[in-house]
Write a structure and sequence with these properties.
By secondary structure, the chain is mainly α. It is built from ten helices and no strands. The longest helix is centred in the middle third of the chain and has 26 residues. It is globular and about 45 Å long.
Length: 202
């Protein structure tokens, strides 16, 4: 198979690779390896870095953040290197879906924030840095991981357009919609004033 082509078969291959990489549940794996318990029975039950942090192990949370971001970035970079921009965007979407809906865990995965940021950094690093800066600013000032994610995701299509990457706008819109959907319970808690803050066990 000629990976440099844009055939349906090649694109399907990159979708499968992206999904496979994205579906690796690093948070769950690290928590078990470091005897932190089953994340699905801790805090929010989520397998991402924010819930790993609720175990009290900051190193495990940092590793989860890096690995969840890294798997999205790797999917994008290898697809782009071999098949170009369209394949990279498809691999990005598939990696995100793999993280949120991993077949190995009954399609019950994370909320995709770290993977989303890793994808952005790999697709266009200035866009990724801008999204990370927005996430960090909200996280530091407001102490809500969910609000940080929602703000960064919501602004990502605008950032893509402003930075001259109109071809990425629709991907950003789709990823933002998925992040908002995955955070629908958090949105309800934010509105009710009951959302858990970063570092708070619960």
């Amino acid at each position: 198979m000629d990976l440099s082509s844009g055939s349906a078969g090649v694109l399907a291959l990159w979708a499968a690779i992206g999904y496979g990489l994205g579906s690796i549940p690093f948070g769950l794996i690290l928590a078990k390896a470091m005897n932190l318990g089953d994340l699905r029975n801790i805090g929010s039950g989520n397998i991402g870095a924010t819930n790993v942090l609720r175990t009290g192990n900051k190193a495990a949370a940092a590793l989860t953040l890096l690995l969840d971001g890294g798997k999205g970035a790797v999917a994008v970079l290898i697809a782009c290197a071999y098949s170009g921009e369209s394949a990279a965007q498809l691999a990005a979407l598939a990696a995100f879906l793999g993280h949120c809906y991993p077949v190995w865990l009954g399609f019950k995965g994370g909320k995709g924030v770290a993977t989303f940021l890793g994808i952005l950094l790999a697709l266009h690093w200035p866009l990724g840095l801008a999204a990370c800066a927005i996430w960090l600013l909200i996280a530091v000032t407001m102490r809500y991981s969910s609000l940080s994610a929602l703000t960064a995701a919501g602004l990502s299509p605008v950032l893509a357009a402003v930075l001259g990457h109109g071809e990425m706008v629709w991907l950003m819109v789709v990823l933002a919609v998925l992040i908002y959907w995955r955070h629908r319970a958090n949105i309800a808690r934010l509105r009710a004033g009951t959302e858990t803050k970063i570092g708070q066990k619960g």
